[in-house]
Amino acid sequence: MSDAKNLAIKPAGTVALIRQGDSGIEALMLRRNRALAFAAGAWVFPGGSVDAEDIAGCQNDLTEAAKVAACREAMEECGLAVDPSHLYQISHWTTPKGESRRFSTWLFVAALRDHSEVQIDHGEIHDACWLSISDAFLRHQAGELPMLPPTYMTLKAISEFDSVDGVVAALKASTPVVVEPHGVPIEGGFAAMYPGDAGYDSLNPDAVGARHRTEIVGGIINTVVDGLSDSEPRLDKIR
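Request: output the structure for the sequence above.
Response:
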């Protein structure tokens, strides 16, 4: 059996597809098959592993290869054609040590200007819906929309804006946040701590000081940011 701490980290690309709706920005959410080994039943953005062909076709530029992979997955999972040149990186996540599967994931945002019909594959993806950001959070807090921290934090960052154009303009001028969360158990659940959190290096969730984390209790995610230095990149903001 492989040592989980030394598992190979697979490159991956994911894209949050957003559009302008009647009640503000909407994001496309896809529900993963409950039978899958990874993130079963979670609501996610289109995405998947980077293939060797993606890397070769992009002259070994992993960021560009991740864009190609994200767009390929968008077509395969939900039938939407997305141009890689329209993707803007918002963050980069590396799965914490100790997890059974580890990914190095480039997370992008792309604005859809037309309202093409979503056609899910009924394989990896079993459901899809466009939701306003506020509705996505309400449904998550009600236990109806399970999410992983990268999905949740991306929606939090997008929620700061009133328009898709505002999100795109901010991303063009921003620096993507690069993070490898440190996961630790807390009372009743789990915390993913990010750089700047007082407990990040010591893996002590009770360490005195700043907070930069997501806490997951009963499957519900809550963002905790307090006392963080202004110079520290935040995952719930685009800047």
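DSSP finds five helices and twelve strands in the chain.
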